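hey m, so remember when u said the tokens were messed up on ur end? i reran from scratch. heres the input so u can diff it against urs
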Amino acid sequence: MLNLISNKKQNKKHNIIFKKLTIEDIEKYYFVSKNKKSLIGLEYERLSLDKNTFENAGYEKLEKIIKTFAQNNNWELIYDNNIVIGAFCSNSTSISLEPGCQLEISLAPKEDILSIENELNKIVSSLDKIASYYDVIFLGYGISPKSSVDDINLLKKARYQVMNRYLPSRNYGELSTKMMRQSAGMQINLDYKDEYDAYLKMKFFNLIMPFMTGLCANSPLENDKILNDKTLRAKIWRYTGSERCNLFYKNVFNFSFNRKNFYKKYINEILNVPMIFIERDSKIIEINGKITFGEFLKNGYLGYFATIDDYILHQSLCFPDVRMKKYIEIRNHDSSSNEMVLALCALYKGLVNQDFTKLLKKFNFLKIKDVEKYNTEAIKNGLNFKLNKNMSAWDVVALLFDISRKNLSSFERGYLEPIFEMIKRRKTSADYIIQCVTNSEELVEFLCY
């Protein structure tokens, strides 16, 4: 049974003594098996659009698509508030609806890119075929190209309703409604071996994240207009709440935040984030920022006391670009084509096979204090900006590419081709869209055909 009650409180009826959750209990959540294989996970969101109007598709059609897909593939349906929100299969791969009815494909972790490709292509092909029958297309793009926030109904999932009320009220939270309804991204999940390995990887991926964001820039058009930003989706995440999005830059990887007690220091950052809600018996108890998780851990809330499940939920409601669970989530990439998804998986696989101590030395020209500055540049310019007079953002990505390529098999190097072409031409998807597209209809044609 989970730890529910404060120190040594006793349930006399069942003669059970409950232990209060501690920092040490939370630390154990991050411990991983020494024999764990190094796997790659993928979470891939695509926009759900009406193929005739290019506006966001409604829930009614998506429910039918999911039910048909589940029936055709012998998957189990997922419900929330008695509505269908997704489906899953026996190996833990799933599809699910995001708040604005974006459709996410979440693959069970794999050892190699070919396995990712085979499962992804099977799911995408099946979904696209069913969607076509309902006049729906799933688009690998970072932001709804035509529908505005007011045009998109929020999925009636209980937690989304709570988040929709809470997030806009926070400091720098004014674009959170766009994040929930309009944005779509790609997330790569990578394993770590132990605390020191987690520290090295978290530091490195935080350092390179702005350049990966720029490489994947794919959202320069919204409301049928070309914007001033090459990745509006990344900009939206900057304004979804400063207390839970822009974590770690100042505290986690400065000189005092070294490898020693890394789990504790990471946990402390999560403890300082205000809570949104907890769940008990399938019901939501709203907290709405009244206390941090650290305060909840110490004092409880309205008679409820912290459990490890509460912590796991709370950390999932913290949105840094790079997040640690039992694996590392690298989150800040615009949604794109299947080919680009696989290229991204391959790029990260090649990097994760490298010695991270050597990687950090090789990239010691990048500083944590500059990450937010580079993020701002990537949002506006993709990779068309300079770090100094001798090096551009493109040069950083080219260096990452070369390192990754050397660590891949000759077969897996082929997956990197879309990134190779971008580096060779020094153009991201956003650059091509700005050059070739003026409205949502042209965008869909450009990206799909």
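this time it looks ok to me. Confidence is low (pLDDT under 50) at residues 1-17. if urs says something different then somethings off w ur setup not the seq
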